[in-house]
Structure to design on (259 residues):
C-alpha cells in the first residue's frame, strides 16, 4: 500500500497541479491513497467546501488543514458536513470540525490527525496533549498519519519522536519548503520535517514575488496574490505492507510541469 502525502496546495495553480498528479498516480496504481494539506487551496488562504469537493473528485482521500483553516468566510459553518476533512486538533475547545478521520481505501482503512505548532505561530493549545486526544478517537490497528503544521523544525522533529512507534507517519507542513530528511525512525514511524508545497514554482512560497519583495525591502504591505507559471507538486510516498500499521519506506517526491 502506497500513500501520497501532499504538501500545502496553494490556490488554483496548486489545485490544477494536484489534479494532474493525483489522477496520474492513482490510475497507474503507483499510489492507493492521498492525504493532502489544503489550507491554502482557496485563493491562497483557507478552503471552501466547493474547493474541498474539487480536491476529493481529483483524488484526495483525506484533507488536512492548518493555521489558515478559517481563511474563507463561512467555512466554519461548512466544515462539520465533511468528515474527510480534519482541522488542527489543538484549536480552542468548541471550534467546529473533526479532529480525527478515517477513510476507506481499496486496500483498507487509513486515519489522519492534524495539529498546529505553538512556536512562532498564532496561539494554539498544546499540540502534544491534543494529538493524544485525537489519536484516542481512531482505531489502534489501522495506519494513521499525523500532519504537524508548524513553523519550527525542532517542534516537528520532537513530535516525530513523541509519536514514534505509535503512528504510521508524522509529516510536516506549513513552511512550503521540502526537506531532505525523510526517514524511518527507530520504532518504525516514517518521518519528514516538511513535505513541501504544491503550486507555482517561480514564487515566494506560492505568492507573487514583487509584492513580497516590496514588503521585505520597504516594510510596506500590499496584497500577496498567488503566483502563476510553472507548477510543482511536492510530497512524500509512504509504503507499507497491506494489513500492517508500520511502513517499509518513505520517499520525498516532486513532480514539475512547465506548461
Amino acid at each position: 500500500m502506497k500513500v501520497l502525502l501532499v504538501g500545502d496546495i496553494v490556490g488554483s495553480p496548486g489545485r490544477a497541479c494536484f489534479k494532474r498528479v493525483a489522477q496520474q498516480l492513482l490510475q497507474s496504481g503507483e499510489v492507493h491513497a492521498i492525504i493532502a494539506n489544503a489550507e491554502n487551496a482557496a485563493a491562497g488562504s483557507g478552503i471552501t467546501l466547493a474547493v474541498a469537493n474539487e480536491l476529493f473528485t481529483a483524488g484526495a482521500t483525506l484533507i488536512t488543514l492548518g493555521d489558515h483553516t478559517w481563511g474563507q468566510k463561512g467555512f466554519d459553518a461548512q466544515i462539520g458536513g465533511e468528515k474527510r476533512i480534519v482541522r488542527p486538533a489543538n484549536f480552542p475547545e468548541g471550534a467546529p470540525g473533526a479532529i480525527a478521520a478515517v477513510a476507506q481505501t481499496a486496500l483498507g482503512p487509513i486515519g489522519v490527525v492534524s495539529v498546529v505548532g505553538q512556536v512562532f505561530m498564532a496561539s494554539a493549545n498544546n499540540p502534544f496533549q491534543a494529538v493524544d486526544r485525537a489519536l484516542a478517537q481512531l482505531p489502534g490497528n489501522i495506519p494513521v498519519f499525523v500532519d504537524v503544521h508548524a513553523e519550527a523544525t525542532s517542534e516537528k522533529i520532537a513530535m516525530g519522536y513523541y509519536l514514534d512507534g505509535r503512528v504510521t507517519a508524522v509529516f510536516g507542513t506549513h513552511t512550503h519548503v521540502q526537506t531532505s530528511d525523510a526517514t524511518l525512525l527507530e520504532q518504525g514511524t516514517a518521518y519528514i520535517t516538511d513535505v513541501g508545497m504544491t503550486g507555482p514554482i517561480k514564487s515566494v512560497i506560492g505568492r507573487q514575488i514583487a509584492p513580497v519583495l516590496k514588503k521585505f525591502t520597504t516594510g510596506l504591505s500590499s496584497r500577496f496574490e498567488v503566483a502563476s507559471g510553472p507548477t510543482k507538486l511536492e510530497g512524500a510516498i509512504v509504503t507499507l505492507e497491506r494489513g500492517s500499521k508500520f511502513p517499509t519506506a518513505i520517499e520525498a517526491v516532486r513532480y514539475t510541469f512547465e506548461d
Remarks:
- The helical segments are 11-28, 49-58, 75-78, 127-135, 153-163, 209-218.
- The CA atoms of residues 86 and 98 lie 5 Å apart.
